[in-house]
Amino acid sequence: QSTWGNLRMRVASIVSLCHVLAVAVCDQSSHAQNFAVIVDTSRFWHNYRHSANSVGIYHMMRRLGVPDSSIVLMLADDAACNSRNPFPTRVYSRNPITTNLYDTDIEVDYRGSQVTVANFLRVLTGRHEPHVPNSQRLTSDNKSNIFVYLTGHGGDEFLKFQDHEALSAQDIADAFEQMHQQKRYQKILFVIDTCQAATMLSRIYSPNIIGLASSLKDQSSYAYSTNDQIGVPLADRFTHFLLEWVDQLPATSDASMAELVSRK
Question: 91, 249, 102: which is closest to 260 by C-alpha?
Fold first, then answer.
């Protein structure tokens, strides 16, 4: 079975997205701006790969032209500063470990105990307390295309947040519908890397949303590429190959979603 054998794509009332991961930027006149919400939901050193997944996706979006001011990055655990990290202040996602993903350009908007289900849903729906700064807000509108990426541990229609609460498939479906009603997006590309990931797409009922998941119901999402010095996996298989594929594309590529999911 190919690496992409467990890939599932769900399309909700959308004809197509012309670009992959730049969130349909083929017609620059059709929308005002691209945004991204990137979330690592896992704590603890053994979940290093989830932090690495997220900062890898962050750098991918930056390379594709999305500015930091349009990215909300949420990291439940600070792997870079963990006392068990043999390379303090550094995070790697590939062997050999040459490219530090946790560089001076990265800006984390929510970290540690701030990464909660409630705060994630507030980011999507814009229902913040008045004191929350713009850097922690998704300032999108009805002409915005949004890339939403989640990674962590999950199961049938749930994704754990820090091992003590869970986001349900219905939670995120309802949040997307609120965004639709509030005119907070034009199109959404929702990517999730967790066990039984496709079940988190099953309740979506709002238009112009495309979902990409690492696994089907009753399937696992597997770690990839353990490093002997770090002692834990550096990435998840799905996100590793997703980033590998996008990295070889120019920022102006018109590669399609069909090309991604048909990759051997």
Answer: 249
pLDDT along the chain (264 residues), means of 10: 39 32 44 90 96 96 94 95 95 94 93 97 96 96 97 98 96 98 97 96 96 94 94 96 90 77 69
CB neighbour burial string for 239-262, b if at least 16 within 10 angstroms, e if fewer: bbbbbebbeebeeebebebeebee
Sign of CA dihedral 141, 16, 35, 78: positive
**41 to each of 161, 162, 194, how far by Cα in Å?**
5, 6, 10
| Catalytic site residue from 153, 164, 180, 240 | 153
What is each CA distance from 186 to 29, 86, 199, 244, in whole angstroms?
13, 43, 24, 27
Is 37 within 8 Å of 146 (Cβ atoms)? yes
Partners of 74 in the beta sheet?
Answer: 39, 110
Nearest alpha-carbon partner for 239 in 189, 193, 190: 193
pLDDT in the model for residue 85:
97
| Cα angle: 68, vertex 93, 8; to 5 degrees | 80
Is residue 195 flagged as an active site residue? yes
State the Cα–Cα distance between residues 40 and 251, nearest whole angstrom: 25
Active-site entry in 31, 50, 59, 195 = 195
* Alpha carbons 258 and 104: distance in angstroms, whole number: 35
The rounded distance, in Å, linking the Cα atoms of 224 and 244 is 13
What pTM, to 2 d.p., does this model score?
Answer: 0.89
Rounded CA-CA distance 145/51 in Å is: 24
Q: Are 150 and 175 spatial neighbours (Cβ–Cβ below 8 Å)?
A: no
